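Quick illustration, no need to memorize.
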Amino acid sequence: MAYVAMAGLLFVPLILLMLSGWSLVKCKTETDADMASGYKKKARTFLYFAIAAAIVFGLLKIIFPFA
């Protein structure tokens, strides 16, 4: 379980941050205001999930340390 926590702590927040950045870039380049607000909402959601994933996998890392 410690390996799952370590891999999740390293990769999941990074992937979510990349998805958030991608949505934010699409938001800035979109000319339609409705589509831009949708991409902005997606970017914010990915940021919240990145924070939650870092907390969850960080707690797993604390609970299941390497022996």
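The CA atoms of residues 31 and 37 lie 11 Å apart.
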